[in-house]
Design brief:
Chain lengths: 155, 202
């Protein structure tokens, strides 16, 4: 292990320790379920996802083969992804006092199950889930979405 | 609904699923609305460019194609086959509890004391319980007194949870004083239903 990679590992461990402690400003949710290999890409670093890890805006969650992950967002939205999935947490602004905010996530590939939370309940246009080919507007609901690249034709 | 129509729906669902699984050239995903546990009315809009499909019944589905979203119906079996792993990883749904206090005290009422064991058990079912305890008071006394009492109630509950094995690092306490009564009253009125903590766990 080189000095740089050792430093990087130490940094990653520090980030991980900081994010598993109590909720902090900037936290938008928490990993609650991990099966198999799940990573979170944050600011160029790749962290192994473990139960308890806090997630942040712009985190990219990736699941491996046979892997899955469940995340509870700060507004009580439940996001869970199946194998070979890439989920981007684009934005989650939530005001606990007014229970209003905005939540945008993107499923680049794979499968995602969603139970929407307080943000979608408070305002019908406040939550979206994008796939490479569609935008889903969430009106307070439970649903599932899959995304994969078409083999040939592009719209 | 006639059996014939039901059969047609099943056929459509099977066709949808076949397309989804084959990774057909023009198909790039599927959206399925799932039933709510409480049967509440819900909807998802699926927009591709200028075209929008609204899913507003359980198992209503949209197939994402290069020609835009195509409406259909999925079956519980289709959903399990495609989304079973994702659904199995769904976190436990957040839960909320309210417990009540003796007047001007941080001691539970007898009823709430009896319920506390059950609340602890529910919280302990969460893999890493993230708990918020918000203390409230009734409208007897000034703001400073009630802010202090509300904080004491929340803190007392935190200590009781920690004593029962709930990790302290996951518990946040807040005191709201008499500002957010469950039952609005004129100032100065004693109201047992406002002497409470609200506990949210996710």
């Amino acid at each position: 292990m080189t000095t740089t990679s050792r430093l990087r590992a130490a940094l990653a461990a520090a980030v991980l320790a900081a994010s598993t402690a109590g909720a902090q400003v900037g936290d938008i949710g928490q990993v609650k379920v991990v099966k198999g290999s799940v990573t979170i890409e944050r600011g160029g670093q790749v962290l192994p996802a473990s139960v308890g890890l806090r997630v942040r805006t712009a985190d990219v969650v990736r699941t491996g083969a046979d892997a899955s992950v469940g995340i509870t967002m700060v507004d009580d939205t439940l996001l869970s992804a199946g194998p070979h999935s890439v989920l981007v947490l684009d934005r989650c602004d939530y005001d606990a006092a007014t229970r209003a905010g905005r939540l945008d996530a993107a499923l680049s590939q794979g499968t995602l199950a969603v139970v929407s939370g307080r943000i979608a309940r408070q305002s019908p246009d406040a939550m979206t889930v994008r796939t490479p080919h569609a935008v889903l507007g969430v009106r307070g609901t439970t649903f599932a979405v899959s995304a994969h690249e078409p083999v040939l034709a592009r719209p | 609904m006639s059996r014939c129509w039901h059969g047609l729906e099943r056929g459509l669902a099977a066709a949808l699923l076949a397309l989804a699984l084959a990774g057909c050239a023009t198909q790039s995903g599927t959206v399925v609305l799932l039933p709510e546990p409480d049967g509440a009315a819900t909807a998802v809009t699926v927009r591709q460019g200028e075209r929008t499909v609204v899913l507003d019944r359980p198992y209503a589905a949209a197939e994402l194609t290069s020609a835009g979203p195509r409406a259909g119906v999925a079956s519980a079996g289709d959903v399990e086959a495609t989304f079973g792993t994702a659904l199995a990883a769904q976190p436990r749904r957040p839960a909320a509890f309210t417990l009540y206090f003796v007047e001007q005290s941080d001691a539970f009422t007898d009823d709430s004391q009896r319920l506390f064991d059950g609340v602890v058990a529910e919280i302990a079912r969460f893999p890493v319980p993230d708990v918020v305890v918000v203390g409230h008071t009734d409208a007897v006394g000034g703001d400073a007194f009630n802010d202090d009492l509300a904080r004491k109630r929340a803190e007392a509950v935190r200590q009781r949870l920690v004593a029962r094995g709930i990790p302290a690092a996951g518990i946040v306490t807040v005191g709201r004083g008499k500002r957010e009564p469950a039952v609005p009253t004129p100032d100065g009125v004693a109201e047992p239903r406002n002497r409470r903590v609200e506990i949210v766990v996710r």
